[in-house]
UniProtKB/TrEMBL annotation:
Record-annotated membrane-spanning stretches: 7-24, 30-52
Keywords tagged on the record: Membrane, Transmembrane, Transmembrane helix
Protein name per UniProt: Gauf-3-monomer
Lineage: superkingdom: Bacteria
Species name: Enterococcus gallinarum
Amino acid sequence: MKNALHILNICLLAIILYLYYLKINVGENIWIPGILLIIGVIFNWILFYRLINKKRKEKK
């Protein structure tokens, strides 16, 4: 379940990056995709940080 969540989160982040790229090229308002991008990066960092800590605890 957690692996599926990580894969889904990475896919959603890639989609947001693509939308952000499209908005920059068109010259439209980039605030909403930019904010979603920042939230996605932070959420990814939190999930991976928890996953790495869990793996470290399992090794001990």
